[in-house]
Amino acid sequence: MTVADNSQTPVLEAKGISKTFPGVKALQDVSVSLRRGEVHALVGENGAGKSTLIKVLTGVYQLDAGQLLLHGNSVSFASPRAAQDAGISTIYQEVNLVPLQSGARNLYLGREPRTALGLIDFKRMNRDAKALLSDFNIDADPTVPVATLALGAQQMISVARAISLEASVVIMDEPTSSLESREVETLFRLIERLKADGVAIVYVSHRLDELYRICDQVTVLRDGRLVHSGPIADLPRQQLVATMLGRELLAQHSRSSSAVVQPPDAAKVAPVLVADSLNRRGLLHDVSVEIRPGEVVGLGGLLGAGRSETAKAILGAQILDSGHVSVGGSPVALGSPARSIAAGVVLLPEDRKADGILPNLSIKDNIVLAALPRLSKSGVFSDSAANKLVATFMQRLNIKAFGPSQKVGTLSGGNQQKVLLARWLCLEPRILMLDEPTRGIDVGAKAEVRRLIDELAEQGLGVLLISSETEELVDGSHRVLVLREGSIVDELDGHRLNEGDLVHAIAGTLGGETSA
Ligand SMILES: Nc1ncnc2c1ncn2[C@@H]1O[C@H](COP(=O)(O)OP(=O)(O)OP(=O)(O)O)[C@@H](O)[C@H]1O
Ligand SMILES: [Mg+2]
C-alpha cells in the first residue's frame, strides 16, 4: 500500500511538532501519521515526550511549531473539548474522572440525557450507563461515586467514556497500568472492535508484550525526538528496546531466577517481620507473612484478592479484627501507620495520585516529606542533609528533571513514580513494602528499580513485593505467597517459582502443580 493512495489519507497527522517547557524541549520536530483501523504504538523512556505529544494532539497544550492535519485539513485545538468535538477521544495517563460523581455521570459528562424540563434525567442516565458498561463487558457499578471504585474499575469507566464518544481517533496513554489481566483482555477486545470500525488508535504502554499483541505501527521517541517510525512487525523486541533507550539494555534486566541473590538461611536468621493471623471480616482471613532480612517475598493474586489490604494491615493503615505484627522481635501496636513507620515499616502505595504525590510541591519537598523527623535531629532541620539525600536519590533512581526544585506535577508519569519511591527509601526502612512499584516505569528504569530492590535486600532489608506482573514476581522474589479471596492459598519457591505455576495458583486452577 502506498502513501499516495487517497483512501489512505491519514485520519490525523502531526507534522514537525515542537513543544518547549521552561528548561526542557519536550518535543522537537516530531511527525506521526495515524491511519484508519490501525493501532499506533507510541513508545519511549519516562520523560521521552509521549504524554506531551498526546496533549498537543488533544488541545491540552498548544504547539510551539508544527502542524496538525485532521482528515487532510489543517486544524488547531484551543482546548481538549475542541479536540473531542472534532472526533479525538482521549484516555489520559492519570485517571481523570470527577471522583465524587457517579460512574454514570462521568460517562455522560457534558452530554447528560435531559428531562423535558431540561434537568438531568438520572434514571435514564443510570440505565444507559449500565447498558453501555455491560455491552462493553465492563464490570463496574455506574451508580456509586467513582472514588469508591477500585482503580481498575475507574480506568475502565474512562475507557468506556472515550469509546462511547464514537470518535475517529482514540488515544490511550498507558490505559492498562492499573488494570488486572481480565480487564486488559476486555480492553483489547474493545480495541479490536474500534479497529474494525475504522478508528485510528494511539496506544502508549511500557508493557512490550501488549504492544506486540495489538499494535500495527510503532513510533519511538527519545528525549523529545522521533527516532523510529514504521510497522511494529519490522522492529523485533530487542531492537525496539535498544532504539528506545539509545543503548542495549543491560543483561541484568532478564536475569534468571538462579541469579537472584540467595536469601539468608531460614533456619539461622530470625525474621525481621512477623505478621501473624491478620483478620478482617470480608477482607483478610488468617493471613500470616514472615520476612527475613535480605529476603524479597512476593505477594501474588488477582485484584481484590487482598494483596494491598495485607500490606496496609502490616502498616497499620487497615483496621483489623485481630492479628499481631512484630518487627525485629518487638510487637508493633496495630492501627497506627506512624508507629509502624517509626518501627521501620514503609509502604509505597498503589494509588499514587490519591495516596502520595503532592503535584504542586517540588521534587525535594516530596522526597524529604517522610524523612523530616529524621532530618530534624534535636528539632533543627538540616537543609544541607536534605539536599544531599535528595541529590543521592535523584541520581540513584535516575529521576529526569531540571533540578530538585521542579514541581512534581510537571514530571513525566514514570518520574513522579520514582520520586515517591525515593520518599520511602530515604527513611532507611527495615521492611519495605512495594505495591506495584514499577507501574508506569519504562523497561530501563524497571531494571534499575529491580536492581535497587536486590541491592537493598542484600543490605539486609526485608521486602514485600506486590505486583500484577507475574514475570516481575517470579524474577524479583525469593518466594511468592498467593492470595485468593483474602486467604493465603499457596506459597511458591524453588522449582515451583515459575510463571506457569504462579498463574495457576493465582487463578485457582489445577495444573503445573508438581508437589504433593
Ligand atoms: N507542564 C509541564 N511543565 C514542565 N515540564 C513538563 C510539563 N509537562 C511535561 N514536562 C516535561 O516534558 C518532558 C516529557 O514529559 P512527558 O510527560 O511527555 O513524558 P512521557 O514520555 O509521557 O513519560 P512517562 O513514560 O514517564 O509517562 C519531561 O521532561 C517532563 O518533565
Ligand atoms: Mg506519560
What does this structure look like?
By secondary structure, the chain is an alpha/beta fold. It folds into 3 domains: 6-247, Rossmann fold (3-Layer(aba) Sandwich), CATH 3.40.50; 269-344 and 429-516, Rossmann fold (3-Layer(aba) Sandwich), CATH 3.40.50.300; 353-428, no CATH class. Helices cover 32% and strands 23% of the residues. It contains 18 helices and 20 strands. The chain has helices spanning 50-57, 80-85, 103-107, 122-135, 151-164, 181-196, 208-214, 237-245, 307-315, 337-342, 352-355, 363-368, 372-375, 383-396, 413-425, 443-458, 470-476, 499-507; strands at residues 12-21, 24-34, 39-43, 65-70, 73-75, 88-91, 169-173, 200-204, 217-222, 225-231, 273-280, 284-291, 296-300, 322-327, 330-332, 345-348, 431-435, 462-466, 479-484, 487-492. The strands form 4 sheets. It has a 6-stranded mixed sheet with strand order 6-7-8-3-9-10, sandwiched between helices. Strand 1 and strand 2 form a beta hairpin. The chain is globular, with a radius of gyration of 24 Å. Mean pLDDT is 87; it is low at 1-5, 251-259 and 512-516. The protein binds adenosine-5'-triphosphate (ATP) and magnesium ion. Adenosine-5'-triphosphate (ATP) is lined by residues 21, 24, 26, 44, 46-52, 93, 400, 410-415, 442.
